[in-house]
Design a protein that fits this description.
The complex is a heterodimer of chains A (140) and B (267).
Chain A: H1 2-8, H2 12-43, H3 51-59, H4 63-75, H5 82-102, H6 106-122, H7 127-138
Chain B: H1 28-82, H2 84-101, H3 103-115, H4 119-129, H5 141-162, H6 172-184, H7 186-189, H8 206-227, H9 231-236, H10 242-256, H11 258-261
Helix pairs in contact in B: 4-5, 5-6, 5-8, 6-10
């Protein structure tokens, strides 16, 4: 029995080293996640946004930032957040439409109206935000 | 084998007779060999155990060393990539490379955006490629200032409409006064008074000149419609000082968008 216990008893130094390794695994995961985050951010253009960034803008109702991200993404060939881009187009077109309509610039107003209609068709679930934008820009 | 004293049966492993207790000298050689084997076995086992413990310790120390090295490398990577100045430098270098490579395309795009009077797209293009600080586009200097001012006013109005407070908890009053700054500074900075531009400067001639007239009129329309200004107020806003214009815009804003104004904690 004692022999078996002796056989199974581990070297205390190895036990300490194993504990250190487990601790270091957690440290590596934490530091690794941070390193990846900063590496990804460093490779990104300052004003470029992915879908989650644009969703955050929307959550904050920061339409100015949504429009900026849309343009910067387009310049850099990022077309992935398509629905958000269409919503941004809608907001910009609706904003301009109100001006052109009030000033009776018929051609420019018609062009903006067509952009609004086209954007609305492709934005899917985000259409609910287009309704909010209508209220915001044109009132009830 | 049999005990030579009592005749009992003995096994080769028996050192003593279990019946009479006398020494089993017949198996002494065998037992001596067995003892040697046993001793050697124990020695080898101990050596193996020591070696295994040493190897285990070294292995773990190597793993710990590698992990610490990896953590250090990742730490250095974090330090480099999280440094804002370093990031800005890296981005400027990348942009400069792109600009050198695609200079013709960038120039062509600029011309198209200017021709299409796509003010917002042009302002974001300028922002993306940091064109405002690029000597190659000096002739566009006033065009760039104009689109940046236009965009600032556009964003101020949009922030009033959507109720966004910015990240500095700005109020509608702040947005109105911010727009007033860009409008009242327009003649100085876009018109070139501040820079003492000569009337025949390439920044104000040809397509640039036409563009500057159009964008000013469109900016005026934007402010007039969203702040419900009269024609007289809209045309005179360019000559107002910041304070007077800011106050006028905020008064209009409070009437037009009261739901947002009421939310302002300072008001």
């Amino acid at each position: 029995m004692n022999k078996q216990t002796d056989k199974k008893r581990k070297d205390p130094v190895i036990i300490v080293l194993d504990i250190i390794i487990v601790g270091l695994i957690f440290v590596m995961i934490y530091v690794g996640m941070n390193a990846l985050f900063y590496m990804e951010r460093a490779d990104k253009r300052s004003f470029e946004q992915d879908s989650s960034g644009m969703a955050f803008d929307l959550q904050e109702e920061n339409y100015a930032s949504l429009i900026q991200s849309r343009h910067i993404n387009e310049i850099n060939g990022n077309t992935k957040p398509e629905a958000y881009h269409l919503l941004a187009d809608y907001v910009q077109a609706a904003f301009m439409y109100r001006i052109y309509d009030a000033k009776e610039y018929a051609d420019r107003a018609a062009l903006m109206k067509s952009v609004m209609d086209e954007s609305r068709d492709g934005m899917g679930e985000l259409e609910v935000f287009a309704d909010k934008v209508d209220k915001m820009i044109f009132g009830d | 084998m049999k005990c030579r004293y009592c005749g009992s049966n003995l096994g080769i492993e028996d050192e003593y007779c279990p019946y009479c207790g006398k020494v089993n000298d017949q198996a002494a050689d065998h037992q001596a060999v067995m003892k040697d084997y046993l001793n050697e076995f124990e020695r080898t086992k101990t050596e193996a155990k020591v070696k295994s413990i040493t190897a285990g310790r070294i292995g773990r120390l190597v793993v710990i060393g590698l992990m610490l090295a990896a953590i250090m490398i990742m730490g250095i990577s974090i330090a480099i990539n999280s440094d804002v100045e370093n990031r800005i430098k890296k981005e400027e270098k990348r942009i400069s490379k792109e600009l050198n490579k695609y200079e013709d395309d960038v120039t062509a795009t600029l011309k198209n955006l200017e021709k299409d009077r796509d003010y917002l797209a042009l302002s974001y293009y300028v922002l993306n490629y940091r064109l405002r600080s690029d000597d190659r586009y000096d002739d566009y200097a006033r065009v760039f200032t104009a689109v940046i001012s236009y965009r600032a006013v556009f964003e101020d109005i949009l922030n009033i409409l959507d109720g966004f407070d910015g990240y500095e908890d700005k109020t509608d009053r702040d947005w109105c006064y911010d727009a007033a700054i860009y409008i009242s500074d327009w003649n100085s900075y876009v018109g070139g008074e501040f820079w003492n531009d000569s009337p025949d400067s390439p920044m104000h001639r040809g397509e640039h000149g036409e563009f500057l007239k159009d964008i000013k009129k469109d900016a005026q329309d934007m402010v007039q419609v969203y702040f419900d200004l009269t024609d007289a107020q809209a045309t005179s806003m360019w000559d107002m000082d910041r304070e007077t214009l800011g106050s006028m815009l905020y008064e209009k804003c409070a009437d037009l968008y009261p739901e947002n104004v009421e939310e302002q904690p300072d008001e």
